[in-house]
């Protein structure tokens, strides 16, 4: 049983608040991703779970034990670090064996357990090499092997792919997903890369300034962002956000007018829509303004307008051509729109 | 880099090395093959009111003329190296034949000035070097783990033995071990022997010199290791914590391997320093119990007779000793470099 609960967890350094009233219930075998920009408190939260950072207030419960006062080694967790944290003087085999050695696991079991971890991380050809003789991806696989070798109840992964190049990141990401599904171990994964979060997570926790912004499945987060921060953080490109006024179901902003929205709310709102949901039209578009830029992305083209203070982009087919400054129209049906309160940034339920 | 650019780049330092390192060594080596000219003695007839007598006197002019003609002295080959004050081959051979077992041979050897100095120098080096490294390492670990606010004062106090001039430091300890000093009295009380005198006992004097050596040199090792500790990978330390390593295991598996190159560096410096041990012997006035190779050179040069060639021979033997001592570390460093 490796249910992990964080109840009213706070972390403060003097007057600075690192993590603010964090509440979360992570189910057994769940893959949970903490996502947010640098300095949002996601790594601090993970370090508190690991026991590498003291909790100022609140409780961390692992299984049925409050682990606040336990040493990291007594929490039955393992952790993978961004810079691998390998022992440079030990070989791959000895690195993976290290947790067994220091935890006094009977020696006769070591070889079988280490070889199994080596096999799962596909490191058979490198087991006698030292970390300095390995590539970044191989080093991170050694760190993964060391994490899984003693079958902990929780895996903690602190931006494990950040030091890898883009190509290696994709393959190692797939490997992590595969390993977690095989091992069925509760995993908490920290990243600032929303693609990693979307592809790996059962649930994503979006954080900003030490606070949870939204908790949900990747689809929930993408389709129903709880506020403008989540809307602008998730998705590539980020959701378009245009400020304007809503009156009688019609949103009016600079260079944009969308009808058919719910008639209930009114006043200053922020309208959001995804670039891939809108389309370029010849006439009758909700946006009609001079084009600011056109970028060829490979599989599509990105058309951008400047509407008031905001840049608004939509994706269209890669053959589309227009000159900068040409008036281009785009269809923004009400069905693809999200409304947020401009003052608070919170989502307005439609 | 072009060969010509490299040549001009290293030329100044090469010239300085030749002038201040190579040339003095060559000079010392050549001096060690020459012994001082004997004085020219003449028989002079001295007549007075009570008759004439034959007297022996030094012909100053003739002596000065010979010395001017051959300023290095008389070529002696390896005679100085093999005389009683140095390698003493004849005496060693005699001792080997006449001794009753190895301990007796050792005792005879320790009566010869060079071997007595070499014996203390090697013992001092062999004991002080590892103890200095160990003490410096543990002080660095301890200072590194104290609260931030206390680090400054702790570092200052840890460095004090190195800041204090060696002569002053050893004199303070010398007074402390005096029969009326706090340590001397303490030892008498501990051993319940009112006649116990550190200064009178060869064994205790050796221990005192070595304790002083470790006390004086440990701050150097501490500073180097403390600097090294600031570069230990925090992720590796933390992953060891999560893996289940105790504090001691983290030191053993993470910190020590990280500091190993620095251990080599400190060992090299300390080997050289300790092999040249000198000041404590002077300050402790311990020459009756312990002499070192450096002290022997100082003695030859400072005495009334100014035995320049003898000092040169001891210097050459000291250089050879340092080279032998450092060779394993140098060979290892060279191999590591070659492997890269």
UniProtKB/TrEMBL annotation, chain A:
GO cellular component, one term: ATP-binding cassette (ABC) transporter complex, substrate-binding subunit-containing
SMART domains: AAA
Keywords recorded for this protein, A-Z: ATP-binding, Cell membrane, Membrane, Nucleotide-binding, Translocase, Transport
InterPro entries: AAA+_ATPase, ABC_transporter-like_ATP-bd, ABC_transporter-like_CS, ABC_transpr_MalK-like, ABC_transpr_MalK/UgpC-like, Mo/tungstate-bd_C_term_dom, NA-bd_OB-fold, P-loop_NTPase
GO biological process, one term: carbohydrate transport
One function term, GO molecular function aspect: ABC-type transporter activity
Domain ABC transporter: 4-234
Family: Belongs to the ABC transporter superfamily.
Name assigned to this protein: Carbohydrate ABC transporter ATP-binding protein (CUT1 family)
UniProtKB/TrEMBL annotation, chain B:
A GO CC term attached to the entry: plasma membrane
Species: Litoreibacter halocynthiae
Keyword Transport: yes
UniProt keywords, alphabetically: Cell membrane, Membrane, Transmembrane, Transmembrane helix, Transport
Protein name stated in the entry: Carbohydrate ABC transporter membrane protein 1 (CUT1 family)
Family: Belongs to the binding-protein-dependent transport system permease family.
Record-annotated ABC transmembrane type-1 domain positions: 118-326
Entry membrane topology: Multi-pass membrane protein
Subcellular location: Cell membrane
Transmembrane regions listed in the UniProt entry: 6-29, 117-143, 155-177, 204-229, 251-269, 310-331
GO biological process: transmembrane transport
């Amino acid at each position: 049983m490796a249910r992990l609960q964080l109840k009213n967890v706070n972390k403060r350094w003097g007057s600075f608040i690192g993590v603010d009233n964090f509440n979360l219930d992570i189910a057994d075998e769940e893959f949970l991703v903490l996502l947010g920009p640098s300095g949002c408190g996601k790594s601090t939260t993970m370090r508190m779970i690991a026991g590498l950072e003291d909790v100022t207030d609140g409780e961390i419960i692992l299984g049925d034990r409050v682990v606040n006062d336990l040493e990291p080694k007594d929490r039955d967790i393992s952790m993978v670090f961004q810079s691998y944290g390998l022992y440079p003087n030990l070989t791959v085999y000895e690195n993976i064996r290290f947790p067994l050695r220091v935890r006094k696991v009977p020696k006769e079991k070591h070889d079988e357990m280490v070889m199994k971890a080596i096999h799962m991380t596909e490191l058979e050809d490198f087991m006698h090499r030292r970390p300095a003789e390995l590539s970044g991806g191989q080093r991170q696989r050694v760190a993964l092997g060391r994490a899984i070798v003693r079958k902990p109840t929780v895996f903690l992964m602190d931006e494990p792919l950040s030091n890898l190049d883009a190509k290696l990141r994709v393959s190692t990401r797939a490997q992590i997903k595969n390993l977690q599904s095989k091992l069925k171990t509760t995993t908490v994964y920290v990243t600032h890369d929303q693609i990693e979060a979307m592809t790996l997570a059962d649930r994503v926790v979006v954080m900003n300034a030490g606070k949870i912004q939204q908790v949900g499945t990747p689809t929930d987060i993408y389709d129903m962002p709880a506020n403008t921060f989540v809307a602008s953080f998730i998705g590539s490109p980020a959701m378009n956000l245009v400020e304007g006024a809503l009156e009688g179901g019609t949103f009016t902003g600079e260079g944009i007018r969308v009808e058919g929205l719910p008639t209930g709310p009114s006043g200053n709102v922020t309208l959001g829509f995804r670039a891939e949901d809108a389309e370029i039209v010849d006439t009758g578009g909700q946006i009609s303004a001079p084009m600011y830029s056109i970028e060829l992305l490979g599989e599509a083209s990105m058309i951008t307008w400047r509407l008031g203070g905001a840049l608004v982009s939509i994706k269209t087919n890669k053959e589309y051509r227009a000159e900068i400054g040409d008036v281009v129209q785009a269809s923004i049906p009400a069905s693809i729109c999200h409304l947020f309160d401009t003052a608070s940034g919170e989502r307005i339920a439609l | 880099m072009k060969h010509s650019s490299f040549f001009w780049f290293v030329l100044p330092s090469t010239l300085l090395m030749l002038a201040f390192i190579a040339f003095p060594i060559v000079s010392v080596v050549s001096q060690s093959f020459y012994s001082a000219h004997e004085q020219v003695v003449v028989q002079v007839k001295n007549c007075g009111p009570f008759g004439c007598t034959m007297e022996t006197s030094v012909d100053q002019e003739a002596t000065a003329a010979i010395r001017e003609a051959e300023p290095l002295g008389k070529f002696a080959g390896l005679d100085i190296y093999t005389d009683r004050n140095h390698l003493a081959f004849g005496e060693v051979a005699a001792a080997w034949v006449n001794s009753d077992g190895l301990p007796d041979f050792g005792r005879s050897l320790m009566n010869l000035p060079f071997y007595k100095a070499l014996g203390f120098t090697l013992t001092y080096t062999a004991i002080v070097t590892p103890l200095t490294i160990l003490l410096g390492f543990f002080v660095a670990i301890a200072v590194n783990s104290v609260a931030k606010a206390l680090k400054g004062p702790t570092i200052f106090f840890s460095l004090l033995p190195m800041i204090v001039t060696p002569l002053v430091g050893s004199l303070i300890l010398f007074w402390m071990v005096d029969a009326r000093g706090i340590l001397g009295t303490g030892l008498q009380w501990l051993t319940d022997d009112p006649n116990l005198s550190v200064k009178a006992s060869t064994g205790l004097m050796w221990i005192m010199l070595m304790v002083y050596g470790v006390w004086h040199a440990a701050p150097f090792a501490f500073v180097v290791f403390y600097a090294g500790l600031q570069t230990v990978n925090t992720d590796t330390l933390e992953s060891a914590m999560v893996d289940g390593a105790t504090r001691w295991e983290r030191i053993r598996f993470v910190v020590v391997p990280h500091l190993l190159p620095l251990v080599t560096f400190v060992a090299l410096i300390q080997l050289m320093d300790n092999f040249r041990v000198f000041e404590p012997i002077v300050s402790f006035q311990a020459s009756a119990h312990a002499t070192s190779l450096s002290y022997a050179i100082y003695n030859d040069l400072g005495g009334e007779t100014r035995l320049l060639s003898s000092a040169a021979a001891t210097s050459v033997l000291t250089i050879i000793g340092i080279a032998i001592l450092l060779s394993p570390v140098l060979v290892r460093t060279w191999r590591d470099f070659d492997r890269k």
